[in-house]
Amino acid sequence: MYGVDGKKFQRQYKQSISDFKNWEQKSHAQDLVLYPENISSQLSIDEVALSDGELYTVLTSKQAKGRKGCLVAIIKGTKSETVIECLFKISRKSRMKVKEITLDMAGSMKLIAKRCFPYAMQVIDRFHVQKLATEALQQIRIKHRWEAIEMENELLERSKEKGLKIEIFSNGDTRKQLLARSRYLLYKSKEKWTLGQSHRAEILFYQYPDLEKAYCLSDELRKIYNQNITKSVAMLKLAHWFKNVEESGFKSFTTLKRTITRHYSDILNYFEKRSTNASAESFNAKIKNFRMQLRGVRDKSFFLFRLSKLFA
To answer: Model's pTM, two decimal places?
Structure first.
């Protein structure tokens, strides 16, 4: 506002206008903010960094769809014992109402969900599984890229003596550039590639057939999730995918297969109601955006107070 000192107004808002002084959760806000009245039958649990990389566990309700009333709890840390103790402050009757909770594959989150919401079906978020598949693919690309960098270094050293030239492909990329610039196209399905990306992928897969094989494995898993299929059909398709992974011989995908097997039933629960952790990820993004607008968090209690006013 014109003619108003920004710092003075901020101080007055915090001390007088906002009613922060009378906030009932102010004394314990840095450790726990709890709104049990917002609990619903479907919840999401995730972790978020408020400031300086310090993690908080956030419990949100899907019913509010990321708007006012979605915040159930923000608890300092991710240690299961601490979070469970805090969530036990919510009455057992309210916690028994929860029928579904979406989460990632972290062991601490699974234990929290099991102890605090024993009647809730746990659903592993599909995007965390797909992310691991993409990372397994990118690991193979990165390995080839470092080899290409070393090859180019050796070639440049030899070229001073013998006049050798660096290989340039038809799209203008060198081998090192081809592997670096292929990063983003490997995240997408073929249908979403641009003409330039399709040309680059054609060259990439011709030069590195193993990358094409790994991309097909990652894309196959994505397609299983994208299809509107039942749980039993998903089991069959995953069994075929496991077989393809075994035949591929890729260590990173074998590790992924073992991870999926360990969380098999909770991953398959997705195909019952197709619930994801998108609401929690969206809420985390809002927190990060809010933090960015404030240029960081100086007073955590006041920051959590403002979050509560917006989302609780």
So the answer is: 0.81
